[in-house]
Amino acid sequence: MNDHAPVQDLPDPSTLGYEQARDELVDIVSRLEGGRAPLEATLELWERGEALAARCRSILEDAQARLDRTQQQAPDAQNLQA
């Protein structure tokens, strides 16, 4: 994330993959912890961070659901691991 790029010019979080959203979120957290942004920019970063966190959570929940379905469809595979 560019320190000077306005938040509104960044891609919609719903279009990002997990790694992209996570990396941008890490950058935002670092910038917020630095405490050097003006109040309005801080609020925009916080809102963007919330949207990115929700995107990451959604992707992880979808991945967990896929794993759960796979395990339900192949109970014999679980018995082989035991």
Description:
It contains 3 helices and no strands. It is mostly helical and 82 residues long. It has one domain (14-75). Helix 1 packs antiparallel against helix 2 (39-73). The chain is elongated and about 55 Å long.
Primary descriptors:
mainly alpha; 3 helices
Question: How many β-strands, per DSSP?
Answer: 0
Q: Sketch the major β-sheet.
A: none
Helix vs. strand class: mainly alpha
Number of helices, counting only DSSP H or I runs of 4 residues or more: 3
Gap between N and C termini: 45 Å
Shape descriptor: elongated
List SSEs in N-to-C order. Answer: HHH
Computed Rg: 18 Å
Number of domains: 1
User: How much helix is in the residues?
Assistant: over 70%
Oligomer: single chain
Contiguous uncertain segments of 5+ residues: none
Mean pLDDT: 89
In terms of DSSP E residues, the strand content is under 5%
SSE layout and pairing:
Blueprint: H1 18-34, H2 39-73, H3 75-81
Helix pairs in contact: 1-2
Question: Could you write a compact summary of the structure shown?
Answer:
With 82 residues, this protein is mainly alpha-helical.
